[in-house]
Specification:
The structure is a single chain. By secondary structure, the protein is of the alpha+beta class. The chain has two helices and eight strands, in the order H-H-E-E-E-E-E-E-E-E. 12% of the residues are buried.
C-alpha cells in the first residue's frame, strides 16, 4: 500500500527549500525599499564643481595662517586661535555626522575675554564628525574630522 505524499518526509524537504528562498527574497526586497541610502547625491557633477571652489577657500585659510586648537566636550565647544594674530567676532561651525545626516547641525561661536571662541552644545556629539569652520563673509574655510567627545585641546588639522 502506498503512503500519501503528505506523510513522506522528503516531500517537505522539496517544498521547504524553494519556499525559504522566496521568503528570503521578499525580506530582502522589503529591507532594500525601506532603508534609503542618504549618501548618494543626485547631481554629482555640480557637487564636484562646488568642491573644487571650496578647495580655494581651504588654501586661502592656509595662506592667511588661520589655525585653531579645538576642544569638544559633552556640553561645550572651545576654539583657541593659534595662527594669525586676529580676533574673530563670531564664526560659523558646522558639525556633519559621518553616517547620519539627520544629526548634522551648525552653531555660531563667539569669543570670551581671552579671545577664545566658545559656546555650549546641546546636541549629542558622540561619534565621528566632520567639523567645518567659516567666517561670516565665507571667504575661507577650515575642515577636520574628529572622534568626539574629547577632553583636551587638539590642533585643528586641515583636511580638504
Amino acid at each position: 500500500m502506498k503512503t500519501p505524499w503528505y506523510k513522506e518526509p522528503w516531500a517537505y524537504l522539496v517544498f521547504i527549500l524553494p519556499l525559504s528562498a522566496v521568503v528570503a527574497g521578499i525580506t530582502t526586497l522589503i529591507i532594500a525599499n525601506t532603508g534609503a541610502d542618504t549618501v548618494v547625491v543626485d547631481d554629482y557633477y555640480k557637487k564636484g564643481k562646488a568642491i573644487n571652489q571650496d578647495i580655494g577657500k581651504y588654501k586661502l585659510a592656509e595662506k592667511l595662517g588661520v589655525r585653531f586648537d579645538i576642544k569638544v566636550t559633552e556640553n561645550e565647544l572651545v576654539l583657541k586661535p593659534t595662527g594669525i594674530e586676529k580676533t574673530f567676532p563670531m564664526l560659523n561651525v558646522a558639525f556633519y555626522h559621518a553616517t547620519l545626516a539627520d544629526r548634522d547641525f551648525a552653531i555660531k561661536v563667539t569669543p570670551d575675554g581671552n579671545g577664545w571662541l566658545r559656546t555650549p552644545l546641546e546636541n549629542n556629539i558622540e561619534g565621528k564628525w566632520r567639523i567645518v569652520i567659516t567666517p561670516f563673509d565665507n571667504t575661507w574655510k577650515l575642515q577636520t574630522i574628529l572622534g568626539l567627545p574629547q577632553q583636551q585641546f587638539r590642533a585643528f588639522e586641515l583636511r580638504y
